[in-house]
Amino acid sequence: MASLQERLTDMIRPAVEALDFELWGVEFVRAGKFSTLRVYIDSPNGINVDDCGDVSYQVSSLLDVEDPITTEYNLEVSSPGMERPFFYAEQLPPYIGETLAVELNVAQQNKRKFKAQLDAVEGDQLTLIVDNETLQVSMRDVKKAHLVPTFD
After folding, report:
1. How many other CB atoms are found less than 10 A from the CB of residue 60?
2. pTM greater than the 0.85 cutoff
3. pLDDT tens-digit map of 83-127
4. E-state strands within the chain
């Protein structure tokens, strides 16, 4: 059975793509009575406030009809930004050589939360360099990962 996040992603993707945007990812964060549904969109031309408004209108209408979330929630639509979160291994190859902040579901080599350089991506497997050591991680074992921006 698919998770709520997976079902929401499958439901929202066609509406986002119909507006010529890429659905970067979906997060549903439960916070008691005030849950949040975050929809991240991207485009080769970047994302502006009007783009977010257009997607929010479409997604909100879709969710009103389908009603997949039984609790109260706020809908947020935004670009992934400079600290872009990663949802799928396929998103990572352009960021090889960059630094990621990673949180694993279960610690590996005594590491659960850490910063690492992305060294390679093969299928679902990530090769990370942490403290000059190589760590192999499956994307399904990653709870959260996002880009750590660098400023030259």
Report:
1. 15
2. yes
3. 999 999 999 999 999 999 999 999 888 889 999 999 999 999 999
4. 22-29, 35-42, 73-78, 99-108, 111-122, 125-130, 133-138, 142-147
